[in-house]
What we know:
Helices cover 48% and strands 2% of the residues. The protein has helices at residues 2-21, 23-26, 40-51, 58-70, 99-112, 119-133, 153-159, 167-176, 181-188, 202-206, 220-229, 254-260, 267-271, 276-286, 290-304; strands at 195-197, 240-242. The N and C termini lie far apart (57 Å).
Amino acid sequence: MAGTRSLLGIVVVIFGLLAFIGSTHAQLQLNFYAKSCPKAEQIVLNYVKQHIPNAPSLAAAFLRMHFHDCFVRGCDASILLNSTTGEKNAIPNGTLRGFAFIDAVKSLVEAECPGIVSCADILSLVARDSVTITGGPFWEVPTGRRDGRITNVTEANNQIPGPFDNFTTLLTNFNNHGLDITDLVLLSGAHTIGISHCPAVSPRLYNSTGPGGIDPTMDSEYAENLKANKCRTPNDNTTRLEMDPGSRKTFDLSYYTLLLKRRGLFRSDNALTTDTTSLALIRQLLSSPPQFFFDQFAKSMEKLGQINVMTGAEGEIRKQCALVNS
């Protein structure tokens, strides 16, 4: 009997250790600030409601910022830090915008509850609220993230998915961050409200193996139109491009429809049609009611927002989002 009790004790200890190991993710919870800063989420939402309708394109910008943040050291707001060797200086982040907006929200929250609410949570909430306010899906954002102290340009260049990635590279990267093929297809759907610039597509228009240098996997009419009206030279670094032409302001399924017409802007967009499972997921989305896309996108966003989060006593709560605490 004593031996049985001893064995049970070992089992309890083992389960306790396992629970502790997994607790960093479990500590994120809905309404984490309900007692410590009960108005926090409403302050964020109010600011978004006040400003995003006047600048709806920021919804895509914040969604992208949140995504890029989570893919480097997890969702720790390291992308917000000012540093000559930080993530802001990485090639994929060169066109990010909206940092002053995040700083403004942080200032309002700090005025209400100094040192309580993390920049990582503020960025996560702003991304969600901005998309929802502009007609996109809603997803739950459990809070309790802590802010990171390290930002590294090399890590960002290596870990953020690129516009020229093939399917294998994309899926491996997503898998390395705890995401699967379904998440890859769904999160790529954020390109329905996306904006890009010519450098991300010019090699497909001028330096590929098809006639006139056009990528043979791209619809030739679409490519010629881009060359004639948008990226008129291979060296255009400034012209902005809609990733979902004609439907950029609407969070919808049009992006996937374009993929099947070989009209995805990036090589990485087209890559989603080169895998049988991915292609089947796209067809399933297109054959389902729009709400199905919203619901599935929400689930993938909830997974994204919990990548390698710091909680408890890890990291810090920054006083200013662009600076680590002194």
